[in-house]
Amino acid sequence: MSDGGRYVGVAERRARLALRQRLAPAARAGSPEEVAGTLVALHGSDPATVHLAVGARLADAAGTVAETERALYRDRSLVRMHGMRHTVFVFPTDLTAVVHASTGITVAGRERASLLKDMAKAGAPDAVWLKDVEESTLAALARRGQATATELALDEPRLREQFVYAAGKSYEGVHTVSTRLLRVLGVEGKVVRGRPLGSWTSSQFRWAVAPPHPELDVAEAQSALLGRWLAVCGPATEDDLKWWTGWKVTDVRRALAAIGARAVRLDEGTGYVVAGDVEPVAGPDSPWAALLPALDPTAMGWRERDWYLAPELRPSLFDYSGNVGPTVWWDGRVVGGWAQRPDGEIVWRLLDTDGVGREAEAAIAAEAERLRGWVGATKVTPRFRTPLEKELAALPGPSGA
User: Fold this and answer.
1) Helix, strand, or coil here: 213?
2) Can you give the C-alpha Rg of the chain in angstroms?
3) Full strand arrangement of the beta sheet holding 327-330
4) 316 CB contacts (<8 Å, ≥6 apart)?
5) Preceding amide of 47 cis, omega within 30
6) Contact between residue 223 and residue 257 where contact means Cβ atoms under 8 Å apart
7) What is the Cα–Cα distance from 345 to 341, expressed in whole angstroms?
8) Most exposed of 30, 54, 207, 246 (fewest Cβ within 10 Å)?
9) How far apart (Å, rounded) are the C-alpha atoms in residues 80 and 87?
10) Largest pairwise CA distance in the chain
11) 26-59 exposure pattern, b = at least 16 Cβ within 10 A, e = fewer
12) Given a cut of 80, is residue 279 above it in pLDDT?
């Protein structure tokens, strides 16, 4: 790494975002695999986000649902699993070993220790018992191919056993062994989420045995993951990298050094790009519009977001936990939000009208129609609702700014 470096301003960062996040029409992708491969990870906490994020970036969005389901459930070229910050993402299958080694192993150790501690406090069986249940569950899952927790409990009844969590505390609750154990197995990379019980918006997933992958060196995996992400999201600050990965700052710095990252100057301070990516980047030939879903990987890609999202817009577009809702973009920045009414119509509102004229409004309206065209009759309600989304979803009458 080097000190100082070239200044990269907001305009260039937005140009990079337009092209590398596959948002400008000329940069759109041909398949869900291409979208996920470019972005590294698609947020999967809300099942609908995966499809909506893919559709926003496909040159032909008409087959978004069928193609994304093909990649996830038939070809298994994409996998939904735990990743950075203990969050569920969808990754290219060939990246699962890197994600597991770079971010999953440490979290998995904490999760298993926490489960055993909670069980011991509740007087539940010990680690030997839990290991036996685990092995029996994995064997049942291998026989079935895919199954829900309820189905697995038919083969392994001990999954139904319950224990009291945090007894005597205000947040006391009853946990089922299946809920906690399957979560731990997911973080450990032993199981992944399979096809949902309902439609593509359903959050009730079956489970499947995770695809086999090699065990990688942790430091090498961290370097590989950070390099992939920085190539599409750079320049980014140390704070951005630490937040996105969930790593310690020492891990971030070691990985930056290992990949030979180059320093550049940003309005926020020092940022980093991968080696060979220091030269200026020109943006698309014309301005562009996009309607991105709640938890979209672009809107959630950086911790420091002022260069594409004005601070005064945040109260309307984020929930109390920091989850972003559906956003409207114009030429590299967030200018508003959108929602879907019960009748299926896409409604949107501008919150930042600076430099947003008739051309922008026409382009945004066209994107809304494009979205409605492939979503069809399916009603999409974000899992984490935000003030503007809830207000727009309840509005009667026609859409518009």
Assistant:
1) coil
2) 22
3) 289-292, 327-330, 333-340, 346-350
4) 337, 351, 386, 387, 388
5) no
6) no
7) 5
8) 30
9) 10
10) 67
11) ebbbebbbbbbbbbbbbbbebbbbbbbbbbbbbe
12) yes
| Closest to 163 (Cα-Cα) out of 124, 116, 113, 112 | 124
**Considering the entire predicted model, what is its pTM?**
0.91
Q: Measured between alpha carbons, how far is 78 from 68 in angstroms, rounded to an integer?
A: 9
Q: What burial class does residue 297 get, using C-beta atoms within 10 Å of its C-beta: 0-12 exposed, 13-18 middle, 19+ buried? A: buried
- Joined tokens for residue 146: 């895919």
Mean pLDDT of 292-303: 96
Chain-centre distance of CA 385, in angstroms? 16
Give the integer Cα–Cα distance in Å for 220 and 305.
Answer: 29
CA distances from residue 176 to 45, 185, 395 in whole angstroms, order as listed: 21, 15, 40
Cβ–Cβ contacts within 10 Å for residue 269, how many?
10
Question: Do 272 and 2 contact (CB within 8 A), yes or no?
Answer: no
Question: How many Å apart are CA 397 and CA 321, to the nearest integer?
Answer: 31
Report whether pLDDT(165) > 90: no
Block residue for tokens 């984020």: 318
* Residue partners of 150: CB distance under 8 A and separation at least 6: none
What is the C-alpha separation between 346 and 362, in angstroms, rounded? 14
| Mean pLDDT on 152-175 | 86
Beta-bridge partner residues of 174? 164
Tokens describing residue 2: 């080097």
